[in-house]
Specification:
The protein has a single domain, classed as Mannitol-specific EII, Chain A. The protein has 5 helices and 5 strands. The chain has a 5-stranded mixed beta sheet. The protein starts with 8 loop residues before the first strand and ends in a 21-residue tail after the last helix.
């Protein structure tokens, strides 16, 4: 099976100490991060909230994947994801959410993004590692194709012979 393409994640769309007053506030912050990196126009954010009102984007393991409706596709400039962590949690219709991965995609690109995210987020160890990631580099590594959620190897260590 061919390797998956890297997820379209701009480091500027990663926010690990976010706070939200409500589910809708958290969704709007995910959308704002996508707007801040030029992936969308502002009206897309409203379609993300609209999608949530019709069907929950909560996927379990403390994770939600908010994304817009079909009506919002014209407001997407390029495929992108945002990653926001809410350390204090957000009440998502009775479920505690600490990690939101916002999605913006042109055409049917959201299908690929959702599929790739599902492979990562439905792995309890990887989902836990993402919920606890302390910096953007760790988030990027955990969302990279092929990462199994294990700690990155120490590349500074090398074999040396003593004489």
């Amino acid at each position: 099976m061919p390797d998956a393409a890297p997820l379209p994640l701009d480091r500027r769309a990663i926010r690990l100490t976010a706070e939200a007053a409500s589910r809708d506030d958290a969704i709007r912050q995910c959308g704002q991060a996508l707007l801040d990196v030029g992936a969308i126009e502002e009206p897309y954010i409203d379609t993300m909230v609209e999608r949530e009102r019709s069907i929950s984007t909560y996927v379990g393991e403390g994770v939600a994947i908010p994304h817009g409706t079909l009506a919002g596709k014209d407001a997407v400039h390029h495929d992108a994801i945002s990653v926001l962590r809410f350390p204090a949690g957000v009440d998502w219709d009775g479920e505690p959410v600490v990690l939101c991965v916002g999605i913006a995609a042109r055409g049917d690109g959201h299908v690929r993004l959702l599929s790739e995210l599902a492979q990562i987020l439905f792995d309890p160890d990887r989902a836990k590692a993402l919920r606890e990631a302390a910096d953007a580099d760790e988030v990027i590594r955990l969302l990279s194709p092929g990462d199994a959620g294990v700690p990155a190897p120490d590349r500074t260590q090398r074999e040396e012979t003593s004489e």
